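On clarity, I found the account of how folds are encoded harder to follow than it need be. Since the whole study asks how a given chain folds, the encoding of that fold should be made plain. For the editor and my fellow referees, an illustration may be useful. An entry of this sort, consisting of the sequence and the corresponding C-alpha cells, reads as follows:

:::
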Amino acid sequence: MLSENIRSIRESRGLSQEELAIKLNVVRQTVSKWERGLSVPDSDMLISISEALDASVGTLLGEGVSEPEADGLSAIAEKLEVVNLQLARGRESRRRLVCGVLLALVIAIVLAFACLVVLGSPYSHWDFADPELAVAGALYHGFEWVFVRIAPIALVVAIAGLFLLRKRG
C-alpha cells in the first residue's frame, strides 16, 4: 500500500523517480525499491517524502483524510509500528545469515585443522623423484603453510563475530 501510494502521488505531481530521489538526497534505485515494495523508508525519510510530495504521512500510509486528528495520529503510529516491525524482521534475518556463515566458517576451520593433525605431513616420506608426487607434495605443503598462518586469525575473528552478534535476551 505504501509503495503504491508513493508511486501514484509522485506520478500525480509529475515527478520522475530521479527528481524525487534528488529532492530526498537518495539514489533513484532507493525510490524504485520503495515503489516496488522491496524496502520501506524509515520514519524520518517518510516525513521527508511527505514534504517532497506535498502529501501527509497519513496519505502516504493509506489513511483516509476524513479521520479526526487524534485518530489520525494513532493510525500513523500503528502504521509506523508495522513498518518498524518489517525493518526489524529484515535486520534479524540478516543477523541470522551472518551468524550462520560465521558458524560454518568456525566449523570448517576446526575440521580442516583436525584433518591436518590426523594426516600429519605425509608428503615428507614421499619419493619426490616422481614429478606428480613432487607437485602434489608442494601443493599440500603450501596449503598447510598458509592454513596454519591464516586459520587462527580467521577463527578468532569468526568467534568474535559470533559473540558480538549473539542475540541478547
About this structure: The helical segments are 2-12, 17-24, 28-36, 43-53, 57-60, 69-119, 131-165. DSSP finds seven helices and no strands in the chain.
